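Lay summary. Proteins are chains of building blocks that fold into shapes, and those shapes determine what they do. In this project we predict the shape from the chain. Here is one chain we studied, written as its sequence of building blocks.
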Amino acid sequence: MTSDKLQSLRIPAEAKNRSQRTVWIIFLVVGLAAAIALYLAWPRESDNVRTTGDKAALAAKERKDTPKPAAAPTPSASPAPAARVESDPGGVLLTVSGYIIARERIELSPRFMGTVVWIGVKKGDAVTNGQVVVHLDDAEYRARQRETEGRLATARATLEKAQVQYERVKLLATASIESRQMEDDMRLNVAAANAATKEIEGSLEWINTYIQWCTIRSPINGVVLEKLVDPNELVTPQSFGGTRGPSTALIAVADLQDLQVEIDLNEADVAKASLGQKCRISPEAYPDRVYEGYVAEKAPEANRQKGTLQVKVQIVKPDNFLTPELSAKVDFLKGASEVPAERR
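And here is the predicted shape, written in a compact code that computers can read:
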């Protein structure tokens, strides 16, 4: 390649300098656009006047086009539902949530260690007072019963023999044929035989009591809340610890016609609840159902950690819609009268 050709490929020095005019034109256009946008976005008083006027005109038009509502019916035309407690919303002092509980939940436990041979109820079954619900194995106690009955028969025969001997010696002593000492010995033999007989009779009663305890009955009319054992399981009134130890209870029963709502009341609201105060209960599961109630119990001691006091509200007429351990809302009403003592 010749020097002439190389010289033709070189860029002249004046061509290496970029023109600054184009850059300044771009900056000028961008700055002008920003100034116009800022001017248009700046709020002005005329905009507020125009907006207010438009809103007023629109509201006037809506009032003109809206028809007048019909006259409301008188309160006597639509009576309130019978299940709802009539009360002015302004008469509510306090509204608190709690849990529905059975006033008495009874867990039937055995009085001694034994084996379940039969259980005649399941969860949800209705039971009556005195109904047999569980049988424990009583074979051992039946055997002891027969043994003790045999001992008692022997003791009674011994007592009868001692009485016959005493009567005979007594006659001989009266005729001065036997001594007074012999008469006293026979009389003491009768007393000893009588004491032994009573002791064995007591043992027999003890065994019969255990046999009766092997048949477990419901103490109330209610519903089985839990079935805690099955046939052939070992049960005991004491817990030996561990997760797989012997069961300590057989079934749990409660009267579902005697329900309460258990509430933890904050310290600041304790003064708003008093014994006998009327309440309105609404279960969360059935918010359209409302029940009457009253404050039946206030705990004598507060919970320091929670800063609460436990209050129990008695439900006057519970029905099948209410289930223990479901949550419920309780309204404490103003101007509540005292509930009669027989309903507490």
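What the prediction tells us: The domain at 89-103+255-343 is CATH 2.40.30.170 (Elongation Factor Tu (Ef-tu); domain 3).
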